[in-house]
Amino acid sequence: MPFVTIFGAMYCEAGEVARRAAEALGCPLAPGDPIAEAAETYGASEKRIRQALRPDASLVGAMPLKLRANLVYLQAVLARRVEEGAAVHLGFGGHLIPRSISHVLRVCLVANLEYRLKRAAEIDGLAEKQARRAIHADDEERARFVQHLHGLGPWDESLYDIVAPMHERGVEETVELIAESARARVLAATAASRQAAADFRAASELAADLCRRGYDVDVEFSEGRASISLRKFTFLLERAKEKIEEAAREFPNVQQVEVGVGPEFYAASSPYARDVALPPRLLLVDDERDFALTLSERLLLRDLESAVVYDGEQALRRVRDEEPDVIVLDLKMPGIDGMSVLESLKQSHPRIEVIILTGHGSPEDEEEARRLGAFAFLRKPIDIEELTGAVRSAYEKIQRQREGRASAPSP
Fold it and tell me: What pLDDT digit, counting tens, does each position of 69-79 carry?
């Protein structure tokens, strides 16, 4: 009997289908909340894990380690459940299970908008306008999550074994289809698929352990060999590789360890290269969403990957989660204005370089921003090459400071 994962759009009866499918197959609905189990096992926050499953729209590019680690913790819990045997799992987590495990049946429940609006009214008493808004927001969250993992839309048929349109099939017929498919010989567990499940568990649990130690890595495991790839640039690379290898060799069933760098690792020819070959961690803060996203795309064409947030409060929260190197900051924003954000940042994170980019700044604003520690004060409309140059100059300053700290004699 396979492990069944069910991923459903909002108001598509996913809970009822999962419960009845488990009954029809005579296997358990995955016991307990895997998010709560992951939080308890790895000392993480349930809120953070749920946030990682529904990433904020401001996450342009790679997910920061503090958020991505929570997905790794959840994946480790799911990997154990897959290895333990047949069950029905409901939720986002099924997307974390690799295709190499052939005895997993992947189900997606969808429906047209008319059906979903009707169910929203019946289940939650929502008026059509409220229901449309809720459905749209939920669909966007699912799209961001699946796009982040697979580079595809959430309902793409290539991701699933069954895509069931609930407005056509209904619960009973969908459950019958799942049960019939689950009993097919092609989904029976084989020695190879059981080994793939065991390797998945070993890789996931090792990745979770390394993430908890602060290493942003991908892990593959096969026949006792752990292949570990660093995802992002780190200073003192060889020392980091040694520490990762030491930690991995302490892990059960690990006989060989290989540590390298992944395709997203931006390394210069030496850890302190002056030519700034690696992109900085860059954050754009501007309440004009279209402008900010367009600017992010233009910077990406110049090998400068950025995250985007849309107000001062989001900026301060993002910095607490994942400290950037350089921030491009607007002044006039609702809520906490840019000058207040600059002052707060320079008190709490003085090594971050802040570039002011505003369409409303006066000479007095520029004087105040520089007094508070702004690296540069630029005005909109901005020439993209001028902004790129300012970002790289700010990062060169950071690199020089890091080099100085690294070469300073120990007390």
Answer: 899 999 999 99
Residue type, 334: P
Averaged over 228-239, what is the pLDDT? Answer: 79
CATH code matching the domain that covers 3-187, chosen among 3.20.20.360, 3.90.550.10, 3.40.50.280, 3.40.50.300: 3.40.50.300
What value does the mean pLDDT of the chain take? 88
Please check the confidence at residue 330 and state whether its pLDDT lies above 60.
Answer: yes
Instruction: Tell me if 87 sits within 8 A of 28, measured CB to CB.
Output: yes
Domain ranges for the chain: 3-187, 191-261, 282-407
Are 67 and 321 in contact by the 8 Å Cβ rule? The answer is yes
Closest of 20, 28, 31, 29 to residue 178, by C-alpha: 20
Q: Is domain 282-407 classified as CATH 3.30.43.10? A: no
The distance of Cα 10 from the centroid of its chain, to the nearest Å, equals: 21
Is residue 158 a contact partner of residue 152, using CB atoms and an 8 Å limit?
yes
CATH T-level topology, domain 191-261: Histidine-containing Protein; Chain: A; (3.30.1340)
Spell out the alpha helix ranges (H) of 151-234: 166-182, 191-212
* pLDDT > 70 fraction of the chain, expressed in percent and rounded: 91
β-strand pairing of 306-309 with 282-285 = parallel
Q: What is the mean pLDDT of residues 6-24?
A: 96
- The pLDDT, as a whole number, for residue 388 is 92
What are the CB-based long-range contacts (under 8 Å, 24+) for 157-164?
159/95, 159/106, 159/108, 160/7, 160/106, 160/107, 160/108, 161/105, 161/106, 161/107, 162/105, 162/106, 162/107, 162/108, 163/107, 163/108, 163/110, 164/107, 164/108, 164/109, 164/110
Examine domains 3-187 and 191-261 and report if their fold is the same: no
Q: Using 50, 70 and 90 to split pLDDT, how confident is the model at 278?
A: very low
Token readout for 223 is: 């026949």
197/277 Cα distance (integer angstroms) = 39
